[in-house]
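Now for a sample.
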Amino acid sequence: MTATGTDTDNAALGQRVRSLRAITGMSMRDLASRAGVSAGYVSQIENGQANPSLAVIRSIAESFGVTWLELFQPAPRHGRVLRREDRPRLFSDGNVAHYGITQPPIGNVEVIVTEYAPGQGAGDEDYTHGDSQEICLVIRGSLQFTVDGETSTLAAGDSIEYRTSVPHRLINLGDDTAEAVWVVTPPSSPITRTVALGD
């Protein structure tokens, strides 16, 4: 069973896949590898010459970090507003909560807001993940960071920047919830993201 049935549907799907590749900076070969198909088949999809199965469409959507239904929706051409109350919660254990700011598909940069209850934090003396550039801007409360053995306490308005390949940890030593904005480039994988920012 196929998910698209007309030449018009296939052409629209192809344009959307091509657009998402441009937004994310993903090559045709990279997309093919992630989706488990050949680069030639991706080319056929983008040119509206293929009628892919739902399984293939799901794999392609997953590669971009979107739902398969979003592959059939046109890409927004103007600024996308995200209200505070509409922020998707990525992960929360009651003491640490992560909210997505960057809207799918995630391109070259990822932005997350995290809230830390008193005494909560992330990482340890030996913790590293990948080799992205990570920037943290504290917007409420204070956080103590230890990066490559050097400790600094950041108050609201302070920021810190480092490579994720360098050992780092953080903890909220204050009495109130601390809130921080994280900017990561290139974006972390979903698994790395969850662990890196507060597991």
